[in-house]
Amino acid sequence: MSFLHPLALLGLAAAAIPALLHLLQRRVPPELDFPPVRYLSAAERESARRLKLRHLLLLILRTALIVVIVLAAARPLVPLRGGGAHQPTAAVIILDNSPSSGAVVDGGLVLDRLRVAARSSIARTTSADRLWLMLCDGVLRGGTREALLAIIDSTHSGWQRLDLVQAVERAARMVDAQPLQGREVHVVSDLQRTALVSGRAAVPPGVRVLALEPGRAVANRGIASVTVSEGAAIIALSGSGAGGKDSPQPVPVTIHIGGGRRDRGEIAARGLATPGSAVTVSLPAQSLAPGWWLGEAALEPDELRADDRRPFTWRVAPPARVTATSGAGSFVAAALAVLQEGRRVSEGRDVVISGGETSPAPAGAAIVQPPADAALVGQANRALASRGVPWHWGQLGTPGSITAPQVPVLEATPVARRYRLEGGSGGGGDVLATVNGEPWLVRSGNVVLLGSRLDTAWTALPTAPGFVPFIDALVNRIAIGQAEVSSAEGAPHVEFRTRGADTVGATVFGPDPRESDLTPATPALATAAFGGRDRAEVLSANDFAIERFSGTRRADASVLLLILALLLAATELVVATRTR
Amino acid sequence: MAQRLDLLDPAEVARLGGIEIVAEGVVEGFLAGVHRSPFRGFSVEFTEHRAYQAGDELRYLDWRILGRSDRLFVKQFEEETNLRAMVLVDVSRSMAWQGTPERLTKRAYADRLAAALALILLRQRDATGLVTFDDQVRQVIPARVKAGQWTRIVRGLLDTPDGRGTAAHAALQRLTALLMRRGMVVLLSDLLFDRELALAALRYLRHRGHQVVVFHLMDPAEVNLSGPPEVRFRDPESSLSVVVRPRELARAYAETVRREIAAWRKACRRHGIGYHHVQTDMPFGLALRLLT
Question: Residue A208: exposed, middle, or buried by beta-carbon count in 10 A (0-12, 13-18, 19+)?
C-alpha cells in the first residue's frame, strides 16, 4: 500500500485524543444530595458490565473514526487483484523454449502450455506498458504487443539451453531501468532444476518476478555425449525419472558410423547404458579408411525427442611413417616394430623419434627425448631453439607419477628421473602430461618433447602395458597434431573447418546434456534462485493469471475509507444514544 | 372559592398559606366533590324516627313503617366516635428533599396531606391522632375527637423538626403499644428503609386488627433520574454515595424504581395492607381520593 499524501499520516497521532480526553475528564464531580442512592447503587451494579462495554466500544469507535479519517486524508493506494487496469509497467516475458520444452506431457507439448501463458501475459498489457520477450537464445526482443505475439506464435522448441538465473537477472536489470511504476518479469518455463544451478539472481527492489508453476514431471533419457578415441566410442547418457525418484533402467543405444556413405562402408553397434553413466562400444578402426567419419548415436524415442540422437565425427588417419634414431632407445624400437607389424606405422621420415642427440628434421614431426648424457642437454636445447621450439630441458626434477588427462594410457605411470621442461608459454594446449604439476610431455608445433627418456632407468612406462598404445598415440595422433573436434549447442549436425583443401577440425552441434534432466525445481528453489521470497513467487496457472500486473493495479481507497468513517460515526451515534 | 384547591398543583396550593389554610381548603373542595362523607358506614348508629319533611333524602325513609301504616318516617342516626385513626408521618432527613425548588419537599407534602386527612376524619367525629418519627418516635398526639384536636395535630406537625435517619420498624413497633383499640393506621413515608423490617411491623399492626394504609411518597425527580453529566449523589441519611452519569444510568434507574414500587405493592397486597404510590406533584384531592 502506498499513499498519495503520506505526510497526512502524522495526523494518526490524533487517534490518542479520545483516550486522552477520557483521562483528562477524570475530575472530581459535583456532589448532590439524593435520598434514593440505594436505588442508584442497585441500578449501577446491574448496569456496570454493560456500561463498561459501552465505554470501551465508544472509545474504540471514536479512535477508529479518527484513524480512518486520517488514512482517508492520506489517500491510500491499494493493490487490486484480478481484473482492472494497471499502472504503466515494464515487463519482460521469458518464454523458455529450450530443448526441454519439446517434451510431450499428457499428450501435449510443454511449449504449447508455456506459449498460452506467455500470450496471456502479453494480452493483459496496455499501450502504456513496455514489453520485451526473451527466448532461449537470451536475446531481449522489444516491440509491440502484436509483434511479440507473432514471435510467440512462430516459436518452436529451440536448441539452446537457457540459464534461467542469468536470464531473470538480465530481465530484472532491464525493467528496473525503465521509468515506469510497475516492473515485472514473467518466467514462463518448465523450471528445470538444472536451469537454476547458477546461484541466485540479483533482482533489484521493486521488481516482481512471477514464475509459472512447472507441470508434471516425466521420465526421460538422452545422449549426453559421444567420445571416440582409440578403437572405442564412449556414449554417456543423461536423463531423469518421472518425478525424479524412479531408479533409471538400462536402455539400448545404437551407433551408426558412415551412414549414407556406403562406398566407405558402414559400422553399426549396440550397447546398454543407464542414464547417468556411459557405455563404451568398440570400433574396428582397421576397417575404416583414413579420413573423416560421421556417426550418430541414437536411443529409442521417448517423451523428449531432441536428445534421443546425437551426431559425432571421427578422423581416421593413415599409418604414420616413422623413423627412430639410435638414441631413441631399444624400447622405442621394439614398440615401433610391434606397431609396424600391426600396420599402425610404416617406415618413413614423417615422424622422427630421437634421443636428443640430433637436431629434429625441420620438415617432419619430431618426438624428442632428453639426451642420455647430461653434458649434451645444452646442445640439444640450442637445436630446439634453432627450430623455433620455445621449450627446453632445465634442471633435474623430482620423481613422481604422470598426470595426463589427454593421454589416458600414461596416467599414474611412475617417473624416477626427469628434466624439468621450461620455457613454454604455459598454454594448456601445449602441455599434454605433467609430473608433480610440472610439464613432462609438451608439444610445440610438430615437435613433441619428453621430460624423461623412454627407458626403465627413467620411467616405468616401457614395461607398462600401455607403452605400445602410447607410442601409437604419440606417432599417429600427438606428433602429427590431432584434428580438433569441438562441440556446441545447436540443432544436431556437424560442421567441418577447412584450411585450403584440408579439413582441420570439426564442430559437433547438439543440445546441452543438462536439457535431458526434466526434473522440475521445487518452488522453494525457484523462489530462492529468482531473488528470494520478497521478490519472486512461483504460482499456479490461475494465480499466475491473477497476480500478473497486480503489483501496479492500485485504487484510491479514500472513498471507501470515508464511507467507513460515516458508518463508524453512525454506529458511534447509535451506541452513544441507544445504549443508555 | 372559585377553584377547588384539592385539584390544584400542591406547590401552588401551598403558597396560599399555612398548613391549616391549605388543609381546610383542600378538604372543602374534596368534600364538595364527593358530596358525602367518603368514610360513611363505620361511624353512624340509628337513634329514632321522625316524620318525613320535604327535602329529606329518600334513602333514609323507613320502608317498613310505610308498608305497615302508610305513613312517612325517616330514620335518624347519631354519629359515634368508634373509629380511631393514627396518621404516621415520616420526618426523616430524606423526607426534607425536593427535586426542584418549585416543588414541595416530601415532608411538606406529607404534612399537608396528613392535616387534610385528619380534618376529614375529625369532621366525621373519628378519633384521630398523629405520630411523627425518624429513627425514633418524635411526637405522639393520641387519637381524640374533642375540639381542638386538629389544631393540636397541626401544631404537632409544625413543631416536629426534620429528623435524621429512618428506622421505621422501631417507630412502628412502638406504635403497637400506643394503639390498643383497633383502628386505622395511615403511614406517610418515602419508604427509604429496610422493606422487610418495616413490613414486619406493618404486618403486626395488621395482625392486631388495624386497617393499614401506606402512602409511598416520591419526588418526581426520584422517579426519573437527571442531573449534570457526571455527579456524585450522596444519601443525606447515611455516608453512602455513588458517582454516576445520569444520562447513562437513567433507564436502568427507572427500571430499578419501578421494580421497587412493584415489590412494595405486591408485599402490601399480600398482607392486606393498602398501598398507594404518590408523587409530590399529585394534587392533594387525588391523593385523598385514593383512600375512598
Answer: buried
* A448 and A362 within one domain: yes
Q: What pLDDT does residue A428 have? A: 45
**Beta bridge partner(s), residue B45:** B78
Q: What is the pLDDT of residues A422-446, one digit of tens each?
A: 887 655 457 889 999 999 999 888 8
Give the pLDDT score at B38: 46
Residues A512 and A531 in one domain: no
**Burial of residue A64, with CB atoms counted within 10 A of its CB: 0-12 exposed, 13-18 middle, 19 or more buried:** middle
| Residues 66 through 95 of chain B touching chain A, CB cutoff 8 Å | 94
Residue B34 vs residue B26, higher pLDDT? B26
Same domain, A338 and A426: yes
> What is the mean predicted confidence (pLDDT) over A62-79?
87
Please name the member of A30, A33, A41 whose beta carbon is closest to the beta carbon of B228.
A30
Give A289-330 pLDDT, tens digit per residue: 777 888 888 888 888 888 888 898 877 777 888 999 888 889
Q: Do residues A60 and A114 both lie within one domain?
A: no
pLDDT in tens, B33-47: 554 444 443 345 565
Residue A18 CA to its chain's centroid (Å): 61
Please check the confidence at residue A91 and state whether its pLDDT lies above 80.
yes
Instruction: Name the domain boundary from A501, A516, A531.
Output: A516
| Whether residue A435 sits in one domain with residue A327 | yes
In a domain, A168, yes or no: yes
For B165, the closest chain A residue by CA position comes to A35
* Residue B132 distance to chain A (closest CA, Å): 19
Strands A536-539 and A208-212, bridge-based pairing: parallel
User: Which cell numbers hold the place of B281?
Assistant: 406533584
Closest residue in chain B to residue A25, using alpha carbons only = B230
Q: What angle do CA A228, A234, A240 make, to 5 degrees?
A: 135
Contact A37 B230 (CB under 8 A): no
pTM as predicted: 0.48
At A354, the amino acid letter reads: S
The distance of A18 to chain B (nearest Cα, Å) reads 17
ipTM above 0.90, yes or no: no
Order of strands across the sheet that contains A267-273: A267-273, A251-257, A291-299, A309-316
> Residue A287 corresponds to which cell in the numbers above?
576397417
DSSP B44: E
**Nearest-CA distance A57 → chain B (Å):** 14
CATH number, position A208? 3.40.50.410
Strand A208-212 versus strand A182-188 pairing type: parallel
DSSP string, A272-308: EE-TTSEEEEE--GGGSPSEEEEEEEEE---S--TTS
Residue A485 lies in a domain: no
- List the single best residue of A40, A54, A58 to mutate versus B (max B Cβ within 10 A): A40
The yes-or-no verdict on residue B28 having pLDDT over 80 is: no
Question: How many domains is chain A built from?
Answer: 4
Q: What is the mean pLDDT of residues B219-223?
A: 92
CB-based contact (8 Å) between A300 and chain B?
no
Cα–Cα distance for residue pair B130/B143, rounded to 1 Å? 7
Q: Distance (Å, rounded) from C-alpha B108 to C-alpha A280?
A: 128
In-domain check, residue A84: no
Same domain, A74 and A97: no
Domain ranges, ordered by start, for chain B: 5-32+82-289, 44-79
Residue A257: in which H helix or E strand, if any?
strand A251-257
The CATH-assigned architecture of domain B5-32+82-289 is: 3-Layer(aba) Sandwich (3.40)
Q: From A45, which residue of chain B is nearest by alpha-carbon distance?
A: B252
> HSE of B139 in the Cβ direction (CA atoms, 13 Å)?
22
Q: Which domain holds residue A17?
A: 2-79+556-578
Cβ–Cβ of B231/A32 closer than 8 Å?
yes
Could you give the percent of chain A with pLDDT greater than 70? Answer: 88
SS3 A93: strand
